[in-house]
Amino acid sequence: MKIYLVRHGEADNKRMPEGRHLSDRGREEINQLAAHIAPLKLEVDYLYHSDKLRARETAALLANAFLVKEVLLERQDLSPESDISPILDEIYALNCDIVLVGHMPFMGKLLSQLITRTEATPIAVFRAGSIVCLEQVERERWAINWMLTPDLFYQGMLCT
User: Fold this and answer.
1) Other C-beta atoms within 10 Å of 2: how many?
2) Residue ranges covered by each domain of the chain
3) What's the mean pLDDT when you consider all of the chain?
4) Helix or strand or coil: residue 61?
5) Which phi and psi (to 5°) does residue 30 adopt?
6) How far apart are CA 24 and CA 2, in angstroms?
7) How far is CA 87 from CA 26, 33, 98, 125, 154, in A?
8) Is the pLDDT of residue 51 over 70?
9) Which positions ≥6 away from 33 have C-beta within 8 Å?
10) 2-154 domain in CATH 3.40.50.1240?
11) 69: number of CA atoms within 13 Å, CB side?
């Protein structure tokens, strides 16, 4: 089983009534991310995103990069300050490959819990527009399979 944790792309500083949109740079970074993962033909059962506009936009841009069995599904429990317990329970109940698009500090806590079994241990710098692939190695043990950040594109470490 694999879980793909995605932090939404960089958001615009302007607050609109509907929320914060992705900035032009944020859209560009997510499009680059999608272009790099699409050739991998990653099959997932669900692609969940938070109810915040920037996460919804990120999920929409990434949806075609994954081979998703279900449509995009919005969840209120992927918000920045949400408790990670409900999503952890669902991960184990579903027992399938999932993409989660959310926010800090939620994504950092979830990553820490899955790797170290405590949400308080920082594991990685989870910058906007980053994705980390986790692979289950035992019932409640996970390992980082790979991670991509926008910095890799700007530093020329990945070709477009």
Assistant:
1) 16
2) 2-154
3) 93
4) helix
5) -70, -40
6) 30
7) 26, 24, 11, 21, 32
8) yes
9) 62, 65, 129, 131, 148, 150
10) yes
11) 7
Q: Is the per-residue pLDDT at 158 higher than 90?
A: no
User: Is 15 in contact with 64 (CB distance < 8 Å)?
Assistant: no
Element (H, E) at 148: strand 141-148
Residue partners of 149: CB distance under 8 A and separation at least 6: 125, 127, 129, 130
Is the pLDDT at 12 greater than 90? The verdict is yes
- Give the amino acid at 28: E
The residues, ordered by sequence, that sit 6+ positions from 4 with a Cβ below 8 Å of its Cβ are: 42, 44, 66, 97, 98, 99, 100, 131, 132, 133, 134
Number of separate helices (H) and strands (E) present in the chain: 5, 8
Which of these, 153, 134, 124, lies nearest to 36 by C-alpha position?
Answer: 153
pLDDT tens-digit series, residues 75-103: 999 999 999 999 999 999 999 999 999 99
Q: Length of the chain, please?
A: 160
pLDDT at 153 over 80: no
